[in-house]
Structures are given as structure tokens and as C-alpha cells.
Amino acid sequence: MKRQARIAMKRDERLKGILCLCAGIGLFSIQDVIIKLMSGEYPISEAMTIRSLTALPLLTGLVLINGGLPSLRSPHMAQLIARGVLNLIAYTGYYLALAALPMASCVALFFTAPLFIVAFSVPLLG
Fold this sequence. Notes:
By secondary structure, the chain is an all-alpha fold. It has 5 helices and no strands.
């Protein structure tokens, strides 16, 4: 009986993960369309600020649910800040590309990121 309960719980967790991934990709697609529409009228810095301010209440809620500000402490804070800066640069570049290129080209290039991660993981990480 316990084994069946564990299997059912794993199945539920997998389904939850799949649904969260699909929802996330759907939200990013909607975000891309909004950024593409805004790019002709607003500077990219303003679009990034609006995106960040929109995400702030959601992220604050997640932090509060998972233990508050102390849960954000890490012994690897420097690496986390560097990662955040790199993500900021990457999203800025992506939004600039959305403004200049067709959306299909930008999304296709975005989805090649895992290939580049694999290619650069060997020389960078050994």
C-alpha cells in the first residue's frame, strides 16, 4: 500500500512539474508578444522595468511562502549576484533582438541556448 502511495505521489509531482513548465513557457510567450508590441513605443529599459515590477509581487509571495528573507541567504552569494547580472544582460539582449528581428527568429535562437550550454560546459566546467 505504501509503495502505491509513493508511486501516485511521484506521478502527481511529475504532472505538477509538467504543468508548471507549460504555464511558464506560455507566460514567456505572452511576455514576448507584449515586449514586441511595446518595443516601437517604449525604450527597452522601460520595458525591463515594467517586467520586473510586474514579477516583484509574485516573487515576494513565493519568498514569504518559503520562509521569508532568511531563506534567500546563501554561502555562494557572489556567484548568485553574478548569475543575476548575466541574466539581466541576456534578457536585455533578447529584448533588443525582439525589437529588431522577427519574433520567430528570436524565439528559435532563444531555444538554441541549451545547445550552447552543453557545448560550453566542457571547456568551462571540465
